[in-house]
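Aim 2, interim progress: modelling of the adenosine monophosphate-bound target.
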Amino acid sequence: MSDSERTGPRLDRLSAPKGTFDTLPPESATFLAVREEITRTLRLAGYGYVETPVFEDTAVFRRGVGESTDVVTKEMYTFTDRGGRSLTLRPELTAGLVRAAIEHNLYAGQLPVKLYSVGANFRYEQPQAGRYRHFTQVDAEALGLDDPTLDAEMVALGVQAFDAVGLGDYTTELNSLGDRTCRPAYREKLRDFLRGLSLDEQTRQRVEVNPLRVLDDKRPGVAAQVAGAPLMVDHLCAGCRAHYDAVRDQLADLGVRWVENPTLVRGLDYYTRTTFEYVHNRLGAQASIGGGGRYDGLSAQLGGPDTSGIGWAIGVDRTLLALAAEGLAPKQPPRVAAFVVPLGDAARRRALPLATELRQAGVATDLAFGGKGLKGAMRSADRSGARYAVILGERDIADGVAQLKDLGSGAQHAVPLGDLVTTLKEKLS
Ligand code: AMP
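Predicted structure of the complex, ligand included:
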């Protein structure tokens, strides 16, 4: 029988979809470590973990994220399921978390409701370095209270999370976007100003739908014209002014450093009052490593109580890129600490139980598979990164011992099988 008769025709090799990537060991250990540091910062501040579905009713994002945003108009992965429902893969985590808080009546309990989540998001973007169609965020939300101390806590938690990860070369940008009292009048003022500029058709349409977004336009031709635009910070109502001042005072008390960016708008529609972004100084075009703000209308938009919330999302993938840009890519921890090398059939029968015993005692252990001889098995032991090889020969088994080899120094000695776990634990502690 020929090869093709045995296996059928050779099929094309498949790869991950455009704009997505795989995270493999050993680098995946850094991904997990970064995720852990960021979420630990949140747990220390009393945030509780929430898991929501990866897809939601499309209305959650249409109403939550906002009809006029790029995310909703151009970037959502929306599909009709077999039951005829319109569902969307989540492009961000906030709207789903607020939907869950409303559905489970969390607003009726202790306020603020402090929640966090971690997970994959999906946006049909033009892929480039740092901008993917599938990316991971850690998301924190404090719901149900409008207290400037919460805003200060939220901004500071992001800084503390980046500190915990080890990042240093980034800027915290801060702005206030006003609220329903002062923003409508400001929007009109801004619209009037923008209508007088020479803008392309698409940007002119944006002026009508969402003029604040035009302030965020990075194209030099637009940015230069917009430079003299009226700014929200100069048109805040008394309530928003007091709120913003209180947030800044409390951040200063905490020793958090920030710069004011009066044109910081961010891409999602729901933000009001405090808005902020963490911008890395060495990442080029996709430099935002996290950001968020207060969103006083979101809960009501999703059919919940008319109450406020504040939150942020930190991009895990971009945080990893930022670490690399700062030359901080952490050393990968070895995959295992011990590696069992069985020689001969009797030893092979003992190898997996012995490795299991070590694992149960908390020693990360692997073993040689595939009937390898001494040379091949020792090569695997070296490659595993283990500090010790536990060599089991036929003679050793008969004598009730194993040879414990220090793979760094090469020193080797026999250890009674009954003492192996304790000996290894001691050596590794
Ligand atoms: P946003 O949900 O748009 O406010 O973004 C919050 C953070 O998520 C950003 O600061 C980025 O770190 C990250 N992020 C957003 N979009 C992407 C993307 N397409 N690829 C990778 N990271 C992203």
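Residues 92, 123, 125, 130-132, 135, 137, 266-267, 288-291, 313, 315, 317-318 surround adenosine monophosphate (CB under 6 Å). The longest strand covers residues 113-122.
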